[in-house]
Structure formats: C-alpha cells, structure tokens
Known about the structure:
Number of helices: 1
Shape: elongated
Helix content: 10-25%
Strand content: 15-25%
Number of strands: 5
Oligomer: single chain
Distance between the termini: 77 Å
Radius of gyration: 30 Å
Amino acid sequence: MTDAVRPDRRTIMCATALFGATATLSACGDGHSEAPVNTPGPVPEPSGEGQVVLPAKDLPVKSRAQVAAKDPSGADVGVLLYRQDEQTVLAYSNICTHQAARWA
C-alpha cells in the first residue's frame, strides 16, 4: 500500500492564488498593443544662417563649451558646443523641437 502525502493548506492557497493571478493577467488583454509604432524620420538638413559664437581655436578637439546664440526670433538661446574632430563641431540647444519649450 502506498502512503499518499496530502498537500497542506498553505500549498493549496498559494497554488490557488497563482492560478487566479495567471487567469486574471491572461484575461486583461489579447497581447495587442495600442501604442503607436514609432518610426524615425529623416535627419533634418541644416537651414538658416550660421553664427560665429566662438573661434575654432578656442575649442580644442574633444572639448565642449557653453555659449549664447540667437534663435530666428532674435532671442538668446543657450547652446552647448562639442568639437568632435578638426572638421566637426556639434551644437545642441536647450529647445525641445517637438514642444518648442526650453529645458529647465
């Protein structure tokens, strides 16, 4: 004769809770996401007039500087410059392009 071990109350309660949570989460959705699929757009081409805000000799390669520049309306805008190599200087403003708001 075989002695069968019966599960205790705690094991039954945990298994029931696990099964209930699994069933609840499964019923919450069909796996379809309503979030839009974001596809990146093309990189915009530079436009407008360039501004000299700092002589190249004052910005060594692999260094950065914070300067003020004028936006198209004439207002001062904080700009971060980074000189990547001898020919490339990158400029970043604190204006959010999709909300037209300034970062704090």
